[in-house]
Design brief:
single chain; 384 residues; alpha+beta; Elongation Factor Tu (Ef-tu), domain 3; GMP Synthetase, Chain A, domain 3; 4 domains; 6-stranded antiparallel sheet; 5-stranded mixed sheet; 8 helices; 22 strands; 28% helix
């Protein structure tokens, strides 16, 4: 029903009750409208199809509002702001090799992490006379699961003695899942809130539009002195969680006002419309803060063979939703594990910033840090 409070969809039971009341009004109070009577079956058949129509009406009504629109309807709302849902993105990194001088590592050669996350080389690479080489490598699939820490892609899928070692010197940041309804709605809100906007809000809006970026922080030093974070006077320092380095630099180049210096360890030379190519844009990725997690799970017969990995996946799923500089709530991990992993009777969760200092308490991240786990920092014990 549509009234001053908006649209309210009647339930199937309410429809049956209303139709039964009307039937008794029209055909007599002694009519049999029970579920096994002819009238009762007819009433429930009508109620079934009316319930479907009301569900459709509810979806149509909700589709016009940012807080309730989903799927294609949300995509169409985003288009009103010139925004489009970000698709899943492939992770890209650079691999460094040592091995036999002159050996050619063919394109599409596979390398992996200890967890089996695979990357393939984009081109042939010839090892130098010093036995060294480097090449761009792409994840074998799309998604944020391919965002791995530095120095973790260290295994050959098809080992050869001519390659002594392989590694990625930098963390992989560019992999991304397809943007969810919640993430797209949040980006629409940011775009709406930042028109017209301050320079900081404009930068946040522009960088958040880059595929794979989850959070952004902008530090403005408007003074003539170095600030508390070591930023030079009259500069902007942008911290980004996720996203491709070149695309972030491009977003900053198109949103930072002329004459404003950006600072950071990641630097890209950008070319303007006049052909000048020495416009240097700088920023930093969020610092990765290793969170130590110890979980003791008491399980039952419904606990699956891959249950321990499911618990680890649930933990990491929660950590990806903690904003930069936020608080890791240990109690939230209970909900994520219980909701996502079958066969658990009870769990005990302890977290901390070091292996020897775990407790049932929250962890406050540093201002520009995001939480991550490693194979050593996330430990799950079953029926210990």
């Amino acid at each position: 029903m549509l009234d001053d409070n908006g649209f309210t969809r009647p339930t199937y039971e309410e429809l049956v009750s209303d139709l039964s009341t009307k039937w008794l009004e029209l055909f007599g109070s002694d009519s049999d409208v029970s579920s096994h009577s002819v009238a009762g079956v007819f009433i429930r058949l009508i109620a079934y199809f009316m319930n479907i129509l009301y569900q459709l009406a509810e979806k149509v009504y909700n589709a016009q509002f940012l807080s309730t629109a989903t799927g294609v309807s949300l995509d169409k709302l985003a288009a009103n702001y010139g925004l489009y849902r970000n698709p899943a993105a492939q992770a890209i990194t650079e691999l460094n090799f040592t091995g036999t001088a002159g050996y050619v590592i063919p394109a599409n050669t596979l390398f992996k992490t200890a967890e089996g996350i695979q990357f393939q080389t984009a081109d042939d690479v010839i090892l130098s006379v010093e036995g060294k080489g480097q090449v761009v490598a792409y994840a074998t699939n799309v998604g944020k699961d391919y965002n791995v820490p530095a120095n973790t892609i260290i295994y050959q899928v098809e080992p050869t003695s001519d390659v002594v070692s392989v590694t990625n010197n930098e963390p992989v940041e560019s992999g991304a899942n397809a943007e969810t309804d919640l993430e797209l709605a949040n980006r629409i809100r940011i775009a709406n809130d930042t028109r017209p906007s301050s320079p900081a809000n404009g930068i946040i809006s522009a960088v958040m539009a880059v595929n794979g970026v989850k959070t952004v922080q902008v530090v403005q030093n408007n003074t003539l002195l170095e600030d508390e974070f070591g930023n030079p006077p009259k500069t902007i320092h942008v911290y980004v969680d996720g996203g491709d380095e070149e695309k972030i630099a491009e977003a900053l180049f198109n949103s930072v006002s002329a004459g404003i210096q950006t600072v950071g360890s990641k630097q890209q030379a950008m070319t303007d419309n006049a052909g000048f190519s020495d416009n240097v844009i700088a920023f930093d990725y969020a610092q990765q803060s290793t969170i130590y997690v110890a979980i003791d799970a008491q399980t039952n017969l419904d606990f699956e063979t891959e249950g321990i990995q499911q618990i680890k996946n649930a933990v990491n799923d929660y950590l990806t939703k903690v904003p930069m500089g936020g608080i890791v709530r240990f109690s939230y991990l209970y909900k994520y594990v219980y909701d996502k992993v079958p066969g658990i009777d009870v769990i005990e969760v302890k977290i901390g910033t070091s292996k020897g200092d775990l407790a049932m308490s929250d962890v406050q991240l540093q201002q520009f840090a995001i939480p991550v786990t490693t194979a050593d920092s996330l430990v799950v014990m079953q029926n210990a």
